[in-house]
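RECORD TYPE: inverse folding
INPUT: structure tokens
STRUCTURE:
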């Protein structure tokens, strides 16, 4: 059972030096090793496995443009965000079979946004997840290596491509 948990600090993509500047801009521009967690992109948006997944299948969608507020979305970005989100829900339904989702933005540090660059979280929820983190008090745990999540989602997207 202990192999089932991952320690974030031991994961390669997080032990590298913290980059200068916006991490999401760097992922969008492929200028960091964290780009390995990227699962999809077009000219407007990037989809990535969350750097610190809260749950297996936890993805973020963010605009290529560095904006910090949903009111800065163009009409086209707003439309694409919705279509991409719906497509990803269909994909995660198949790959991870969660029983529910949390979808949302954190805007501003007081709201918990650790990254300024606007991003929408897609957090799959599972029936028995509560209690797992209590087992290992104070440690962030997850039950799937984010790099494995990345591969699974990418593969599913090849079969069911996002159509805008
Ligand atoms: Zn940025």
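DESIGNED SEQUENCE:
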């Amino acid at each position: 059972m202990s192999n089932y948990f991952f320690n974030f600090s031991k994961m390669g993509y997080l032990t590298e030096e913290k980059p200068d500047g916006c991490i999401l801009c760097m992922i969008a521009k492929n200028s960091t090793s964290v780009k390995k967690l990227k699962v999809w992109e077009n000219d407007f948006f990037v989809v990535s496995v969350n750097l610190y997944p809260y749950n297996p299948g936890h993805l973020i969608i963010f605009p290529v443009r560095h904006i910090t507020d949903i009111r800065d979305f163009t009409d086209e970005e707003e439309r694409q965000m919705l279509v991409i989100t719906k497509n990803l829900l269909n994909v995660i339904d198949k790959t991870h079979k969660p029983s529910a989702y949390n979808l949302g933005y954190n805007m501003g540090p007081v709201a918990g946004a650790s990254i300024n660059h606007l991003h929408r979280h897609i957090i799959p929820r599972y029936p028995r997840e509560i209690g797992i983190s209590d087992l290992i008090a104070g440690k962030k745990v997850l039950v799937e290596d984010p790099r494995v999540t990345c591969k699974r989602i990418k593969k599913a997207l090849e079969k069911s491509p996002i159509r805008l």
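NOTES: Residues 1-7 have pLDDT under 50 and may be disordered.
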